[in-house]
Amino acid sequence: MSSKRTKGVAVVYPIVYGNVATLLPQKKVPDSDHTHRWTVSVKGLNGADISHFVKKVTFKLHETYSNPVRVVEQQPFEITETGWGEFELSIKLQFVEPSEKHVTLYHNLRLHPYEEDGSISTANKNKPVQSFQYEELVFTDPSEALHQILTQHQIPTLPLRTSPNMQYSLQAEQDELRKIDEAYKKVQEQIIIYKNKLDKINKELDDVKGNLEQIKK
C-alpha cells in the first residue's frame, strides 16, 4: 500500500459504538453473581461493514474480567460477556493502512434502564437496554491507499433525526447531558464548601494577627 499522503483532503466516516444488555434469568450463569448479558460493538452507520478499512478492534474491559484485553480482527467487531456492574471500557480501532494513527473511543457500559432523575427504572428492567454513541472518524490528509479504500466504498450518511434507527442519538445525548448536569452540580457544591472553609481559615488568620498585634502593644 502507498503511504504517500493525500494533501488537502479530509474523509469523514460515521460510526456507531456502544452496547446492548439484557437481564439474565435467575441462575442462568452457574456459581456467578452476574445479572446481565451484554454485547459491545463498533460498526458503520446503519450497520455498515467497516472491515475494508479497519484491521482490528481492541476492547479493554474492567480488570476483574479474565483476559480483559480482547482483540477482534474481523467483522462483526464485537464481544459478548456477562456481568453485574457498569464500567468504562476503551475501544481501539487500528486501520489496514499502518501509517494511519489508531483511534481510541471510550464507552460507559450500560446495563440498567434509567429514569430522568438518574434512578434505575424497575418498570423496564426486563426490556433490553441499548446505549450507543455516534462518532465521526476524520481522516485528514490520509494515505493514498486509505483514501482509495474509503472512496471505493459508499460512505453511509446520517439518517433524519426522526428515523427509528436513531436509537443511539437521542438517548445517548440525554444520558450525557444528564451526567454533565449532575457533575456540574457536584462541582458547584464542592466549590461552595471549599469557599466557606477558605473564608473560615482567613477569618481565623485575621483573628490570630489581631491577637499578635495586641500582644506586641
Key terms:
four-stranded antiparallel beta sheet; 217 residues; 2 helices; extended; transcription; Immunoglobulin-like; 31% strand; alpha+beta; 2 domains; 8 strands
Topology:
Elements: E1 10-23, E2 36-44, E3 54-60, E4 69-72, E5 77-83, E6 88-95, E7 103-108, E8 129-140, H1 144-152, H2 167-216
Domain YEATS: 5-153
Subcellular location: Nucleus
Organism: Diversispora epigaea
Would you write up a description of this structure?
This protein has 217 residues and is an alpha+beta fold. Helices cover 27% and strands 31% of the residues. The chain has helices spanning 144-152, 167-216; strands spanning 10-23, 36-44, 54-60, 69-72, 77-83, 88-95, 103-108, 129-140. A 4-stranded antiparallel β-sheet has the order 5-2-1-8. It has a 4-stranded antiparallel β-sheet with strand order 4-3-6-7, with no helix packed on it. Strand 6 (88-95) and strand 7 (103-108) form a beta hairpin. The longest helix has 50 residues, at 167-216. The radius of gyration is 25 Å and the shape is extended. Residues 160-165 have low confidence and may be disordered.
